[in-house]
Specification:
- With 322 residues, the chain is α+β, with helices and mostly antiparallel strands.
- It is 65% helix and 10% strand.
- The protein has a 4-stranded antiparallel β-sheet with strand order 2-3-1-4.
- α6 crosses α12 (254-266), α8 packs across α13 (270-301) and α9 crosses α12.
- The longest helix is centred in the C-terminal third of the chain and has 32 residues, at 270-301.
- The radius of gyration is 24 Å and the shape is elongated.
- The two termini are 38 Å apart.
């Protein structure tokens, strides 16, 4: 698994940055284009490196403050046919599938945690679908709501924010959850309230829905499922396996629980609404806690840039720039 880095760096710093790229274990190819950058003025460096070595290389470039005076663009090509790339992957420590690029995870979860119209639309649609499945006792509709719900993005972002202490990211994710769920639940309650006089479902719909009892009966397995889902979800983000996220969405009852709270309140089933609200809380907390634990584990096992290397790079940067 090869990753390409495109590095824009001022001329005075390019020699040190280029040497850091060439010395990095797992580097397959390095290309240097002096004076190729026009704005800002400087040089371009392109490097192909095994994914398991990317994080260490980025740490080196960050010590040189390349991201402040230039830029670092990270891309993953679909296919690389190169013997040197194969050799680079073989000498790089670890495995590319297990390698974590912290800035990549922060960026991905940050994009998925924004309170946007599309995020609200998906959450509202998912909650509406869940509400329909609840009043019609349809497991298929409820599973569909689980798959449509976009709530894992902000939950994963909360875990990343807690581990990396990126409080701006955490606030953005918290706002997305704190605004998104109440809005979706309010609209689901409004839809249920309008549907009753139209005769779309009876007022005792919750008494006959045996297929949805698991939503308002939280128990030990509710937390266990949430923890497993949070673990699988964060692992899929780290390993860039988006298909696995679909399975995560289907396994948790966050959106169905929110839809059940809305319907139960409209029908006056306050005890069931309380149970479903507890189910929602257990799932949210369990997912964030599990995702947080996964990130802490990866931080503990990941190779860190040696302090001696960081000091040497700082000294070279200071000497080069005068």
């Amino acid at each position: 698994m090869i990753v390409e880095l495109r590095i824009c760096v001022p001329e005075g710093l390019s020699a040190v940055a280029l040497q850091a790229c060439r010395d990095q274990v797992g580097t397959a190819e390095t290309a240097f284009f002096p004076g190729a950058s026009v704005a800002p003025k400087g040089d371009l460096i392109e490097v192909q490196v095994a994914r398991e070595s990317v994080e260490e290389l980025i740490e080196k470039l960050q010590v040189l403050k390349v991201q402040e005076v230039g830029s670092i663009v990270i891309a993953t090509p679909e296919l690389v046919l190169s013997r040197r790339a194969e050799e680079a992957e073989s000498v790089a420590p670890g495995d590319g599938a297990d390698a974590m690029i912290w800035d990549e995870v922060s960026h991905q979860t940050g994009e998925d945690s924004r309170l946007t119209w599309s995020y609200l639309a998906f959450l509202v649609l998912a909650t509406q679908l869940a509400a329909i499945g609840i009043v019609t006792n349809s497991t298929i509709a409820i599973v569909g709501a689980m798959a449509v719900g976009p709530e894992f993005g902000p939950l994963a972002a909360l875990a990343v924010a807690l581990v990396r202490r990126q409080w701006t990211l955490g606030r953005r994710a918290a706002v997305a959850l704190a605004v998104g769920f109440p809005v979706a639940m309010l609209l689901a309650a409004l839809t249920a309230w309008l549907s009753i006089p139209l005769g779309l479902f009876p007022t005792d719909a919750l008494d006959t829905g045996s297929a949805v009892e698991f939503i308002y009966h939280p128990g030990p397995y509710s937390l266990i499922v949430a923890v497993l889902a949070g673990t699988a979800g964060m692992l899929s983000v780290i390993s860039r396996r988006s298909a696995a996220l679909i399975g995560v969405f289907i396994s948790v009852t966050t959106v169905p629980a929110a839809g059940f709270v809305a319907v139960a309140l409209v029908l006056g089933e306050y005890q069931k609404a309380a149970g479903s609200a507890l189910q929602l809380l257990v799932n949210l907390v369990g997912i964030v806690a599990a995702a947080f634990a996964v990130l802490v584990f990866y931080r503990l096992i990941s190779r860190r840039l040696p302090e001696a290397t960081a000091k040497r790079l700082k000294w070279q940067r200071a000497r080069t720039l005068g």
